[in-house]
Amino acid sequence: MTIQNGTAMPLLSLKDIDVRFGSVHALRGADFDLFPGEVHGLLGQNGAGKSTLIKVISGVYKPLSGDVSIDGVPQHFSSPRDSRNAGIAVVYQSLSLVPSLTVAQNLFLGIEPSFLGFVNSRALNSRAREFLAQHKLPLRPEQLVSSLPFAYRQLCEIGKALITEARILILDEPTSSLSKAEEPILFDAVREATRKGIGVIYVSHRLSEVMDLTDRVTVFRDGENAGRFNTPDVTISQLVSVIVGEKLAKNVAAAGESAKRRRPIATNEPAALELLNVTNDVVSNVNLSIQRGEILGLIGSIGSGRTELLESVFGVRKLKSGTIMCNGKVANIHRPQDAINQGIKLVPEDRHEYGLVDDHDIESNMTMSMLPLLKTFGFLFNSPESKAFTTKIVDRLKVKTPSISTKINKLSGGNQQKVVIGKWLGSDTKVLLLDEPTAGVDVGARAEIYKIINQLADDGTAVLVCSSDYDELLQLCSRFAFISDGAISGTADRSQVKDEKDLHNILETSRGRASHV
Amino acid sequence: MSEKITTTNEGLTLGFKQRVVASDQPWFLYGAFILLVVAFTIANPIFLSSGNLLNILNQTALVTIMACGVGLVIITGEIDLSVGSVLALSGVSAALFMQGVTQNWFLGALAGIIVGSLVGLVNGVLTARFLIPSFLVTLGTLSVARGIALIVTGTSPVLVTEPTFWAVFAEATVLGIPIPIVWTIVVIAITWLLLHFGIIGRRIYATGGNLSAAKFSGINTRAVKIFVFVFSGALAGLAGVIIAARGHAIRPDVASGIELDVLAAVILGGTSLFGGKGKIYGIILGSLIIGILNNGLVLMGIDPSIQLTIKGALVIIAVAFGRR
C-alpha cells in the first residue's frame, strides 16, 4: 500500500500536543499523524506518553495546547463521546462485550433492528451475517461470545467498532492475551480494515508483531517524540534502542548472550524437577526434566496445555496419573501448599486474577505466601519481621514504590510483576514456574525482570518459562520444549535456534509430526 | 526519568479516583456517631448520664460480640445471616443441658458455645467444601436452628436456676462494670489479636481480597472460611449463654431479627461486603451506633415498629455509603 507522499491529507493529525498533570509534563510538543489505510505503530515504555496520547485522541484528556484535526478540520473533543462521533473507536480487550449474548446481539447492542419494541432476531442475525462477510470477519452471528477464544472476541470488538462506521481504530495491546497461533486471525482483520481505508493506531510492547503489521511507527520517550520510521527501514534492535535509550538496549542484548552460555549447574545429580507421564484433563503423558540452574522455555499456543501443565505441577489442577519428582524423590502434590513445601513456586499468567490482591498493600501481598515462616510463637504475627522481609525483597528486586504500604493498584505493571515474583523469594525456591512473566510489562522493567530470573537460575533455581513472546524466550532460555494438543512434541537446545522464525518452524513441524503418530 | 512520569501520572489519576470513591470512611462513621449523641442528648438529657451510657454498653454487648464474628465472615467475602437463631439454639441448649445433665455453670455454658460452633461448622463446610453460597446456607440454617430450638423446647421457655451462671454471664460486676461488658471486651481483644496480629488475620484478608490469589499463594482458603464460620457460631453461642443468664430463662423465639442489628453494625463499621476490607474499630463503632440508636429511639418514646423501619433504612444507607 502507498501512503504519506507528503501531499495527501492525513486522516488524523496531532500537532504540538502538551498535557500536564500537576507538575508532571506527560506530553511535550507531541506530534502524530495517521493516513487512511495505514497501520501506524505507537511504541514507548510505560509512562512514555503513549496512553496519554491515546486518551487525547479518544477525548478523555484535553490537551493544554496543540491541535487535533481530522481530515484537516480542527477538533475540540470535550468527551469520549465527541471523539466517537468523529469516527474514532478504541478497541478494548473484550471489555465492552456481554459474554452471555451472541455475536450478533453484541454487534447490534443498543441498535437492534426491532418492531414495536421487540427485537427482530431473524433480521438481527442476517444483518450481522452480512456485516461480518463484508468485513471478512470469521465469526458466526449465533455464536455465544463466552464460547469464543480470545482472538475471536477481539474480532467481535473490532466488528463493534466498525459497525458504528469508525474510520480510526485504536488497538491498545491487542495481542497481550493471544497466543502466537491466534495472532494472524487478528492481523488479518486489521489488514482487511485498512483495505477499506480505515486508519489503525497500533499500540504494542511486542516489537516482532509491530514489524509484521505496521506501515510506520512512532516512538515516544519521556513524553516526547523520539523517532518516526517507515517500518521496512528499521530493525527491531534499532527500535529497542530508540524506545529505551542506548544504555538499556545493551542490557537486553546481554540477556540473550547469557542464555546461550547458560548450562545446568550439575548434570550428574537428579533433576530439580522431573515429570513422568504427567496426565491431567488437558495434557497427557508429559515427560520433562529441568536441572538446577537451567531455564527451560515451554512453547505452545494458548489451549496447548502449557498453563494447565504448570497448574498441575503447582497443585491447583488435579493430576490424573503420572509422577512429579523433585531432586530424585517422588513429590505428592495435591494443593499449592504441597508444592510450596517442595520449593516449587508458580508465577501465574494473570497477576490480577491469581497473583495479587490489587487493593491491598505491597507488604500484605508479598507476605501472603509465606505466613507460616513469619509466625513467632504459635500464631502471633510478627509485624516488624514482615516489614523487614518486604523491604529486603523490594530493594533486591528494585520495585519502584514510595513505600511498602503502597497499594498494588498504584504500581506499574512491571512493579506489580516484581511483587508477584518477590512473593516467592522468602523461602528456598528450587523450581520457579513462570507463566507469561512479562505480560503488560514495558521494555525497561522487562530487562530488570530478566535479570532477576537469570540471577535466580545462577543461584541454582530450575526455571520453567511459558511465554507467547518468542523474543523473550530466546533471551532467557537455555533449552526449549514444545507442547501442542496437550503433548510434548519436541525439544531443542538454545544453540540449535537462531531466531524467532526457527522456534516457530520447530513448533509447526513438531506439531505436524505429533498429529501423524 | 520516564519512571518518574509513570508513577506520578498513575498516582494522580488513581489517587483522585480513590479519594472520591473509596474515601476510607471514618469521618462518616465518627460524624454519624457524634451527630447521634448530640441529637439524643438534646432530645432527652438523661441520654448522656453515666447510668444510661453503661446501660447502652450492656444492651449492645450481644450485638458487639456477634458483630465480631460476623465481621470476620464478611471480611472473608462470605456472610452469616444465622447468628440470631444460633444464639437462640445455643442459649436453649445451655439451659436444657443444665436442667437435664449437670448443674455445673461452666459445662452448661460450654455446651451452648459448642452447639453454636457446630452450627458454624455446618455453615462453613457447606459454604467452603460444597460451594453453596453462604447467603443461602446461612439463610437455611437461620430457619433450621430456630426450628430445632422450638422443637426441643416444645416452644416454651426453659428456666435457668443456677445462680453462678447468672452471675458469671449477666449479673456480676468487675470494678463496677457489668460483666456482659467485660465479656464484650474479652471478645473484642481476641478478635483484634486474631485479625491484626494473627496469621489467620492475614489469611482472612487475603481470602476475602482475592480468593484465587490466596489459593495460588498456598493459603488453605477452605480452612480459613470454615474457621470464620465456626468463630461466628461460637460467639453467637456465647451471646445465647449471656441472654439465658440475663433472663434466668430463655425463650426459643428470643432475639429474632437481631441479625439485622449485627449486620448493620458490621456494615456501618466500614466492612466491605465484597470482602478483604474491614477493621475491628469500625465494627465496634458500628455496634455502638446501633446501640445508641436503639437506646435513643426508646428514650425518645418512638414506636418499636418505627424503630425497625429506621434501622432497616440505615443498613441500606450504610451499604450505599460504604460501597467500595
Question: What does this molecule look like?
Answer:
The complex is a heterodimer of chains A (517) and B (324). Chain A has 517 residues and is an alpha/beta fold. Chain A has 3 domains: 12-244, P-loop containing nucleotide triphosphate hydrolases (Rossmann fold), CATH 3.40.50.300; 253-343 and 429-516, P-loop containing nucleotide triphosphate hydrolases (Rossmann fold), CATH 3.40.50; 357-426, no CATH class. Chain A has 19 helices and 22 strands. Chain A has a 6-stranded mixed beta sheet with strand order 6-9-10-3-11-12, sandwiched between helices. Chain A has a 6-stranded mixed beta sheet with strand order 18-19-20-15-21-22, with helices on both faces. In chain A, helix 6 links the parallel strand 9 and strand 10. The radius of gyration of chain A is 24 Å and the shape is globular. The two termini of chain A are 43 Å apart. Chain B has 324 residues and is an all-alpha fold. Chain B has one domain (58-322): ABC transporter involved in vitamin B12 uptake, BtuC (Orthogonal Bundle), CATH 1.10.3470. Helices cover 76% and strands 2% of the residues of chain B. Chain B is built from 14 helices and 4 strands. Chain B has a two-stranded antiparallel sheet with strand order 1-4. In chain B, a hairpin with a 2-residue loop joins strand 2 (173-174) and strand 3. In chain B, helix 3 (50-75) packs antiparallel against helix 11 (221-247). Chain B is globular and about 55 Å long. The model of chain B is unreliable at 1-23 (pLDDT under 50). The A-B interface holds A 21-26, 45-49, 52, 221-223, 314, 316, 335-337, 339-340, 346, 348, 353-360, 364, 367-369, 371-372, 374-375, 379-381, 383, 400-402, 409-410, 412, 423, 444 and B 1-15, 193, 197-203, 205-206, 209-210, 212-220, 276-277.
